Amino acid sequence: MLAAVTHAFTPHSHDSAGKTDSALESSSRGLRVLAVSFVVLMVTAAVQAVIVVASGSVALLGDTLHNLADALTAVPLAIAFSLGRRAANRRFTYGYGRAEDLAGIAIVLLIAVSAALAGYEAVTRLLDPQEMRNPGWVAAAAVAGFAGNEWVARYRIRVGREIGSAALVADGLHARTDGFTSLAVLLGAGGAALGVPLADPVVGLLITVAICFVLRDAAREIYHRLMDAVDPALVDAAERILAGVEGVRRVGTVRLRWIGHALHAEVEILVDHGMSVVRAHAVAVEAEHRLIHDLPRLRAATVHTDPDGPDGADHHEALAGHRMAGRRIR
After folding, report:
1. Residue 178: which of 148, 198, 155 has the closest Cα?
2. 4 lies in a domain?
3. Which of 27, 57, 279, 294 is deepest in the core (most CB within 10 A)?
């Protein structure tokens, strides 16, 4: 009997098999995106490399190197997605989903390096303009570079948002920066064809500024994930779901956090203090069930059940000095 009471009023965890399968499918989708985008960007870089040899364009060489680097960002992300599929163990009790956030940091650093290289090349060409051969071919290669990168960017960002992967979204933003660099090459080639060689470095500087804005967005995305930030609308939705469970009188603290591209929840609900242990347990299980199935991308929930009443009773008096940090945030 004591064991039953303890179980009813301590955290209870439920991990839906369907949600686990969904999480594995999300990782599989992420790996497919990385494989497809890797092939597209490697083909794009190969086409550009051939034209670099024919034209001697330093700008196109830089763009080709950027595309190659962008393709290689698939490597840390693929490792992260593969690690995320591993089961939790006694050392990594929440699993390996955080590997995606580490990959996101690497991607943000690559975007920063891309911005620095683009700015450096633009300033160098501004101080020492380079003659460009076959500007028509260079322009065609620039269009190919932009098209390849923009397609990959849209693909990565769309799937990244669908599966909740901040790292994949950041990688899509990185691809977009390389597409901007390709546009700089295109405009530079147009300037060279019109007899305005300084057009290339000037546009390159403007594109560097655009890359910095993309860097800001990607860094903010990864920073929020590292700091366990979630959309407040998700917290509101979780509270509504819990409040709608029969037997729940009030909703206490609701905490959500991303681990990789899956959400985890820790919540408190209050039930009638006269409710039986068996009934209180059933309410907790139903609350978990509703959360896991109604809150998008939530893989697991831990529900703590507290008695509501009698008036004046403090069931956590012994913990009062330890629970200040756990106050509910409105």
Report:
1. 148
2. no
3. 57
**Residue 298 pairs with which residues in a beta bridge?**
263
Task: Write the CB contacts of 111 (distance below 8 Å, at least 6 apart in sequence).
Answer: 170, 173, 174, 177, 211, 214, 215, 218
From the list 145, 166, 132, the residue with the least C-alpha distance to 54 is 132
Q: How far apart are CA 257 and CA 275, in angstroms?
A: 31
**Residue 10 forms part of a structural domain:** no
Are residues 270 and 307 located together in one domain of the fold? yes
Three-class SS state of 265: strand
Domain boundary (226, 245, 263) is at 226
Write the CATH number for 283.
3.30.70.1350
Give the SS3 label for residue 107: helix
Q: What is the pTM of this model?
A: 0.71
Range of the domain at 218: 17-226
Please report, in tens digits, the pLDDT of each residue of the chain (330 residues total). Answer: 434 434 444 455 444 444 444 555 677 787 888 888 888 888 888 888 888 777 766 667 767 777 777 777 778 878 887 887 788 899 998 888 888 888 888 888 887 887 787 788 778 877 877 666 677 778 888 888 888 888 988 998 998 888 877 778 877 887 887 787 777 777 777 777 777 777 767 777 777 787 788 788 888 988 998 899 999 999 999 999 999 999 999 999 999 998 877 889 999 999 998 999 999 999 999 999 999 999 988 988 999 999 987 877 766 666 666 655 555 554
Structural domain count, the chain: 2
